[in-house]
Design brief:
By secondary structure, the chain is of the alpha/beta class. The chain has ten helices and 14 strands. 37% of the residues lie in helices and 29% in strands. Bound molecules: S-adenosylmethionine (SAM).
C-alpha cells in the first residue's frame, strides 16, 4: 500500500536542488529539515557525486506547491546569515518534476540496515539482515513519512528510550506523538512487552504509513494508530515521545497539553530541536510547568530533552 500511496502522490512532487557555499550549508540543511523535508541529501567535495564547483548541493523532495515557499524561507535565512558576515553567495536552486521510479530509487539508495543505540536495528523492508539474539528489530518502509532512524532527532529519542528502559520502571502507557513512520512506537513495543502504546500524527499519509509498518512488524494488536494533533492529545501517559519541531513544541497550548497528560511518574521526551532551541524549551517546560530535567543529549547539532514530573 505504501507504494500505492506515494505513486499517487509522487506526481505532485518535485526534486529541488539548492546550491550554497559551504559555510551556509548546515543552516540551510537544518531549515529544510525543520520545514518538514523527510530527508536532505547532501553532496559536497567529500561525497561520491561531488558538485561541479566547491559549493554544497542540498537535494530534497518537496510537494510542487511548496517549492516557492521553501525558496523564500531559505532566502530569508541567507539574508540574515549574510548580515552576520557568513558567506552565502552565490546561491542557486533548481527544481525538476519527479519521476516516480527515481523517487523510490533515491530514498532506497540512502536507507540501509542501521544499528541505533545499543540494541535497535532498523531494517528497510527490501533489505536483508540476520539478527543477533539481542537485536531489537524494526522493519520499515518509510514511503512518504519521516522516520527512517537516520536523522539525529529520531536517534536521540531511541537513545532516551534505552536509557529509560535501563534506569526506570516499565512505563504503563506510551504515546508517540508525531509518529511519522511509526519507528518510535515500534521501538517502544520492542523494549517493553506489556505497556499500551498509541501512535498519533496529524498527517493522514503518515498515519497510513505507520499502520502499515506496525502491521509489518506484527504489532497491530499492541499499537493503536490514530490521526490527531499534539494540541488535542487526550488520555494519560507515563511516557510521551514528541519528536516534533520547535515551532510546535513552543506553543503554549501544546506545552500545557503535554505536561497535563503525564501521570504522576510521567516522563516527556522532546526532540527535533537545535541546540539553542532546546535550551529555551527546557527553561519553558521546567519554569512554567511541573517538570524537571532528567537527561539531555546532542548529536549533529540536534538535541533531545528528557523531562520528568517533579517529585
Ligand atoms: C520529525 S517527524 C518525527 C517522525 C518520527 N516520530 C521520528 O522520530 O522519526 C514529525 C512528525 O510529526 C507530525 N506532526 C507535525 N506537527 C504535528 C502536530 N501538531 N500534531 C501531531 N503530529 C504532528 C508530522 O506529520 C511528522 O510526521
Amino acid at each position: 500500500m505504501t507504494q500505492r500511496v506515494f505513486t499517487v502522490l509522487v506526481t505532485d512532487l518535485a526534486q529541488v536542488t539548492f546550491r550554497v557555499p559551504q559555510p551556509a550549508a548546515e543552516a540551510v540543511s537544518n531549515l529544510l529539515t525543520e520545514l518538514g523535508s523527510g530527508g536532505v541529501e547532501q553532496r559536497d567535495g567529500e561525497t561520491l557525486d561531488a558538485p561541479a564547483d566547491d559549493r554544497v548541493e542540498l537535494r530534497v523532495w518537496l510537494p510542487s506547491s511548496d517549492v516557492e515557499g521553501h525558496v523564500k524561507a531559505i532566502k530569508r535565512l541567507l539574508a540574515s546569515l549574510r548580515e552576520m558576515g557568513v558567506e552565502v553567495d552565490p546561491f542557486a536552486w533548481e527544481s525538476e518534476e519527479a519521476d516516480p521510479d527515481s523517487w523510490v530509487d533515491a530514498y532506497k539508495r540512502h536507507f540501509h540496515v542501521a544499528r541505533i543505540g545499543r540494541r535497535f536495528v532498523v531494517k528497510p523492508s527490501w533489505d536483508q539482515h540476520a539478527p543477533e539474539p539481542s537485536d531489537l528489530m524494526i522493519e520499515l518502509d518509510p514511503g512518504m513519512a519521516f522516520g527512517t532512524g537516520l536523522h539525529a532527532s529520531t536517534k536521540l529519542v531511541m537513545h532516551a528510550l534505552e536509557r529509560i528502559a535501563r534506569l526506570c520502571p516499565t512505563p504503563q502507557s506510551v504515546v508517540d506523538l508525531g509518529c511519522g513512520t511509526g519507528i518510535l512506537a515500534i521501538a517502544t513495543a520492542r523494549l517493553w512487552q506489556v505497556c499500551t502504546i498509541v501512535a498519533i500524527d496529524n498527517d493522514p499519509i503518515a498515519v497510513a504509513v505507520a499502520r502499515e509498518n506496525i502491521e509489518r512488524n506484527g504489532l497491530s494488536d499492541r499499537i493503536d494508530v490514530r490521526e490527531g494533533s499534539a494540541e488535542h492529545l487526550e488520555g494519560r501517559y507515563s511516557l510521551v515521545l514528541a519528536n516534533l519541531s520547535y515551532d510546535v513544541l513552543s506553543r503554549p497550548n501544546v506545552q500545557t497539553t503535554l505536561a497535563g497528560r503525564l501521570d504522576d511518574f510521567g516522563r516527556l521526551v522532546l526532540s527535533g530541536l537545535l541546540g539553542e532551541q532546546a535550551k529555551e524549551l527546557s527553561l519553558q517546560y521546567t519554569r512554567d510547568l511541573s517538570l524537571e530535567p532528567e537527561y539531555s543529549e546532542e548529536e549533529s547539532g540536534w538535541r533531545a530533552l528528557l523531562l520528568r514530573v517533579r517529585a
